[in-house]
């Protein structure tokens, strides 16, 4: 069995409808995924299944989510060892230790091309940092600049399908899959 991390993009379904994590776990069990567990109510799912093709697994999860909850949501899946490598590759360990909620990674379905990552440099504010690692985009942002141009520039339109998680979530998911960030 292989352990996987699934990240759901924006699971807000609208007025009066939200995704209950117990329902998300039930959906995963319905797909035959073993030991599904969630981390907080923000669309983070860890489970086990036979080693399989990531793209196929993402498609199965997205189809099941739409059938279960009536809305399409992009889902990015990583194997546990890939998640641990992502966590270990955090280029901002000092900032993460000081203000973990201000360090985030945009986890991408397909790696961001180097030239696309380079164009993001033009959007980095004076109190921000950005670095591409392994095709994902790490950002240190400031609460003093709530309308960050950098965060806005990391959209689906510019970079492709991805979803952001702060360092607290990255670290806790690494712990859930049996590793240390």
Q: State the major sheet.
A: 4 strands, antiparallel
List the uncertain runs: none
What's the helical proportion of residues?
A: 25-40%
Overall spatial form = globular
Q: Using only CA atoms, what is the Rg?
A: 16 Å
Number of helices: 8
Description:
There is one protein chain. By secondary structure, this protein is an alpha+beta fold. It is built from 8 helices and 8 strands. The chain has helices at residues 21-30, 54-69, 80-88, 93-98, 114-120, 149-153, 156-159, 167-176, and strands at 2-8, 34-38, 44-49, 75-79, 103-108, 129-133, 136-140, 162-166. The chain has a 4-stranded antiparallel sheet with strand order 2-3-1-4. A 4-stranded antiparallel sheet has the order 6-7-5-8. Strand 2 (34-38) and strand 3 (44-49) form a beta hairpin. The model has no long low-confidence stretch (mean pLDDT 89).
Question: Which helices and strands appear, and what pairs or packs with what?
Answer:
Blueprint: E1 2-8, H1 21-30, E2 34-38, E3 44-49, H2 54-69, E4 75-79, H3 80-88, H4 93-98, E5 103-108, H5 114-120, E6 129-133, E7 136-140, H6 149-153, H7 156-159, E8 162-166, H8 167-176
Antiparallel strand pairs: 1-3, 1-4, 2-3, 5-7, 5-8, 6-7
Name a few traits of the molecule.
181 residues; 37% helix; single chain; four-stranded antiparallel β-sheet; 24% strand; globular; alpha+beta
Task: Characterize this entry briefly.
This protein is of the alpha+beta class and 181 residues long.
